[in-house]
Amino acid sequence: MLPYPQIDPVALAIGPLKIHWYGLMYLIGIGGAWWLASKRLPQFAPEWSKEKLSDLVFWVALGVIAGGRLGYVLFYDLPAYIGNPALIFEIWKGGMSFHGGMIGVLLTTWWFARRNGKSFFELMDFIAPLVPIGLGAGRIGNFINAELWGKPTDLPWAMIFPPFSDPQQLPRHPSQLYQFALEGVALFLILWFYSRKPRPTMAVTGLFAVCYGIFRFAVEFVRVPDAQLGYLAFGWLTMGQVLCVPMILLGVAMMVYAYKRGVYLHTANPS
C-alpha cells in the first residue's frame, strides 16, 4: 500500500485570501494549452496574431469553467444546488463535469470560428490535442482534494485517503491518478502523434471523443460513483459511463465520415 501524500488543498494563504491547488491546476492547464497552441499556430493559422490566439484561449477557458460547473450542477447534484444556489460559485471545492465543460467548449468554439473565418471542426481539430493538458492537471487537483477516489482494493498501490474524505479509511484505487495517466498523458500522446500528419477535418476531434470516452468508461469501473447518484442502470453503470456511450459512438461516426469525405482543411502539427 502506498501512503497518501498529505497535501494542504490551500496552496497559499494571504490573510483571508486563499489560493487553492485545485484552482491553480486550472491555471496550469490553461497556460500549458496556450503555450502549446502558440507553437502550433504558424501551421494552423499563420495569419492569426498572438492576441487572437489569446482571445481563443480566453473564450475556450470560459466555456470549460462555466460549462463544467453548470454541467456538474445539472448532471450530478441539481437538488443540492437548488436548495443552496450559492454553492455553485464554490468551485475550489471541486464539482466540475467534463461533459459539461465539453459542451461549453463546443459552444464557444462554434461562436469563435464563425467570427474568425474558420470552420467549426477545423478549429476543434486544432483545440482537441490541447485539451488533455487541462484534463491531466484537473485530475491532479482531484487527487490533492482527496476526492473522486476509487473502490476498495488490496493492490499494492492502494491508498487510504484522509478521514475527512473517506471516513471508512479503506485502501482504495487512486482512480484520480489512473485518470491523470489515461485522460492526461496517454490521450495527449495519442492526439499529438496522430495530428502530426495531415488528417481529414473532423478526424482529430472524433479520435478525441473515442479515446476519452473509452478511458473514462474504463476507469469508472473502479471509481466510486457520486454518493447522491449511485449506479444508474443495470446495477453498475455510472453517470460518467452513461454520458460517455454517446460520446464514443459519435466519435466513431465522425472519424468514419471524415475519412469518407476526405476534406483536408488544416496542416499537421509541427514535428
UniProtKB/TrEMBL annotation:
GO biological process per UniProt: lipoprotein biosynthetic process
GO cellular component, one term: plasma membrane
Organism: Pseudomonas matsuisoli
Family, similarity comment: Belongs to the Lgt family.
Keywords, alphabetical: Cell membrane, Membrane, Transferase, Transmembrane, Transmembrane helix
Known EC number: 2.5.1.145
GO molecular function ontology, one term from the record: phosphatidylglycerol-prolipoprotein diacylglyceryl transferase activity
Source taxon at top rank: Bacteria
KW Membrane (keyword) present: yes
Protein name from the UniProt record: Phosphatidylglycerol--prolipoprotein diacylglyceryl transferase
Function: Catalyzes the transfer of the diacylglyceryl group from phosphatidylglycerol to the sulfhydryl group of the N-terminal cysteine of a prolipoprotein, the first step in the formation of mature lipoproteins.
Residues bound to a 1,2-diacyl-sn-glycero-3-phospho-(1'-sn-glycerol): 139
Annotated TM spans: 19-36, 56-76, 96-113, 120-140, 177-194, 201-219, 231-259
Parts forming coiled coils: none
Lipid bilayer topology: Multi-pass membrane protein
Localization per record: Cell membrane
Pathway the protein acts in: Protein modification; lipoprotein biosynthesis (diacylglyceryl transfer)
UniProt keyword Cytoplasm, yes or no: no
